[in-house]
Fold each of these.
Amino acid sequence: MLLREVDYARPSTVEEAVALLAGYEGARALAGGQTIVNVMKSRAAAPDVLVDLANLEELRTIGFSADGLLEIGAMVTCAQLVNSSEVDVARPILAEVAATIADVQVRNRGTVGGNVCVNDPTNHLPPLLVALGATFTIRSRESERTVPADEFFLGVYLTAVGEGELLTKVSVPPSNDAGDGFAGVTIGKHGTYIVDAAATVSDDGVRIALGCVAAAPVRATAMEDRLAGSDFSADSVAAAAQGLGASLDPPSDVHGSADYRRHLAEVSAVRAVLQAAGRRKGA
Amino acid sequence: MATPARSRAISLVINGEQVEMEVPARRLLVHFIRDDLGLTGTHVGCDTGNCGACTVQLDGEPVKSCMLLAVQADGSRIATVEGLAPDGDLTALQRAFNEHHALQCGYCTPGMLMSASALLARNPHPTEEEVRYALQGNICRCTGYVNIVEAVVAVGGGA
């Protein structure tokens, strides 16, 4: 397919990238291109300027901050997450989930920054990063700010990254005593989720986030509260999920009705929490 | 500061040959390969990133060339199906496709070969499960995959 004419620049520093994003109307960041190139083909969006982040090596690294957070650069690919020894040590659920995103070719190009900034409701990383309590570092020409996951995902294809801004890294607390889980029901064996749920169980409590049920990931806060002090038996987790489906207003489409998604939300949340509790250190 | 432009002079190595060309920013890599370079072994299937018929290797890793702009490949090393057997002596993988009848219409075959050869390069003896996982991004509407998977497993010496 023929794309609309577009201007292209490949900056060599983050400063230059944010200057381009802020300085040109209709400028969009180009990471791996696994979403935006298709969007441009269908002309659902037509950026005037593409700012290719390919040469920004500082965004391609995975490491640890001074206070022990796992820091993932926005240009780290899904394939890099899958193979990272840092991820394996600090938060292996990220590799486990990244390995189920799309296919080999897409994982080789698709980036963490792209996956979260697109915030397609069916993307895997947004609900997972909400459950993990990740924080997002956003740069502009003037400043740098850090946004918690609960405030990052705003709507369909909409995040806290504004015009002229660039997501540079995602920081994830190491698991320590926590166990993490991810569960859901897909279209076909490896396909897109109809509903998914991510959960973290630690000494600090339980965090549960649902994907595919709303414009952005949804925290199951009532279920989290009911699980305080739980023995995490199958029965008590199932009991805690009662009413979760009824609290949601998910979409209906060819893959499932809203009612089916309400049902799947409870099933997925229970499975994710049981998996997380079973993996908790000392469990 | 880099100035945005409608086109870019790109330089890359394709099947071992250095190529330098000015390309429009909006040109897809698959069109650059097929139309500008005349390498029509790489097929356009769905043009939506789902089917994998356009798979090539970029710096050794399989990617879908309909989901990349040619300008994004600037500075990279590309391998297409034409590069597998430049002298006409088929590779073990290509012979296995023949022996196992791993194609019917053949449209998906170049993409299958590029994904499978990338797998074999990093994992010379893949299991059936590993082969299926590696080929998940390549759709075949004829064979039902059984013979394709058998061919790739056989190259690695598996049953």
Amino acid sequence: MYFVQILVNGILLGSVYALLGVGMTMIFGIVKLTNLAHGEFVVLGAYLSTVLAPMLGVDPVVTLIITVPLMFLSGFLLQYFFIGKAMKKGAEPALLVTFGLSIILQDAMLMIFSADAQHIVASYSMSTIKIGELEISVLHLVLFAISVVSISTLTLFLRSTHTGRAIRATADDSDAAALSGVNVNRVYAIAMGIAMASAAVAGLCVGMKWTYYPSSGGGYLLISFVVVVIGGMGSVPGTMIAGVLFGLAQVIGGANYGLLISYVMLLAVLVIKPKGIFGK
Amino acid sequence: MSDKRLQRPVRVLDSLPMLIVCIAVVSVLYAVCLLRIASNNAMRYMIQIFLYITMGQMWNLLSGFAGMTSLGQQLYIGLAGYSVAIATAKLHLTLGVGLVMSVAVSVVVALVLSLLLFRMEGMYFSIATWVVAEAFEKLFLSWKYVEQGSGLTIRVVPYPKIEEICAVSLTVCVMSIAVVYLLLRTRTGLGLTAMRDNLTAASAVGVNVFNHKLLVYVIAAAFTAVSAGIFFVNKGIVYPESGFGISWTVSMIFIVTIGGSGTVSGPITGAVIYVFLQELLAHYPGWSNIILGAITILVIFFLPKGIMGTLQEKLRFEIFSAKRFSFAKHK
């Protein structure tokens, strides 16, 4: 029974890690950019929900109605007018621009929100339900539901809409996509928008699960990296499986050894299959 | 080729007069260090500049010349800090032995890691280097012998005088510049830049990619370690977070980007600017990273080759050039 409990907790938590990775994998796979500011986007999403929930007097999950479109728009504009310009200069300048962006955001959030620990509290944060001998936290179930809904929506969007097909075509071969009439810069901007929107969702989830600080971004960035690289860059199913593996490592290893286990896991994957489990 | 500028020759400043200038500058710096001409405060800045030049030079060697953009050089900084601390506080050895130990440990770790890291290229390599550094941080956080998270004090008896630290830092710095410069002018240097520009093509024309990478990676680990060892003597204590933190890489990236990636003179300029900027920004707490970030972004957009890279291009000269001949002579 203990084993099942660990498995369930690992899978439920893993969905949050998968969510962290999804935004990163979009940018890697489609825009071919290493976005070092992704962690700060997640923290920004967390702060937006933290501020908005008491302001509107609603459950934190409801704030997504505002934060998701807001972050999507910011991501779109950021890529279209800013990062896209840097990408024309090459891969390394673009990487360094996102790096500059990450330290700017980090200190800006520090000034606006102070260095205090933050936590998003919902009415069900502490409650649990019992199924037989299994004890499951309601919060974990809510986070799992949010993750599954957002990742499935994204997968459906990529699979069956016109824009989704244009995005996948660009990911496969941006030159060929451009020749067939896809506006590649617009696709990149949409991809960054989706990445930031997913960061808003992930931010809400990590903010409800753990305490966070303006400086937490680096940690989330690293987790997203690990999840994305284990799963294979650009692969959404790979990211989900890697997220669950990562979640299991955290539950088994605890606070101290959990990360160490997942780092060793990552390095092992890189040695055996350098492009990730689902990598092409 | 209608652009007039392209037809003007590039002057490579590497002849005897340049050597004399370099020797003169270094001698003056030694004199300032050893004869205590500068105040203690000025010496402290000089030490910082020398050490940051060394670290910047090494990051530039990896990223700017060999195309191995590492986000994990802090691994060797942390290892060096702990080597010095263990040598002096636990084993009661001298500082010199501690520094030698830090280099030895870093070289061994670099050799072992190369087997793992060199299987990856591009951003996979960057991420893997960072993950390795983080993994070591977690390891040291839970390792009892090094006092886990509470840090390890460095006990150097007798404590070296500031002019000694200054002279040693200068020596390390000059050596690092000389090694990078001389390395780039050999056959190996040509192989490295070929690898950076196109790995497959370089390998096809007979560049032994693994050996070249290994050489650069080990040199970078050794020099980063020795400069970090000196750094931590000044600090007096090493924590897992201060040793293996990503902020070291932040500094290196800033120094190299501002100065000019892929030039030997770039990191020198970048380190001087970085140390003064840091001092200036200390008066505006909270703003320092915002300003550093904004400067990085502005430089990338408007001076993509960095200060020295842009100056050299506009004024058609090159100092510490990797080129073995000047085009001017062949005109």
